[in-house]
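Example record used in the benchmark description.
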Amino acid sequence: MSTKAIYEATGKKLLNKYLGSTATECRCVSIDADTDWNEL
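Model output (structure tokens):
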């Protein structure tokens, strides 16, 4: 098992992918120092 941490947004995307239509779609973004606020 990997000990690499993942972002919460990535985890939610994985859950949505594998749970399919049984889960509500996650609409989130990851923000970092390079994020262009005008593109959001």
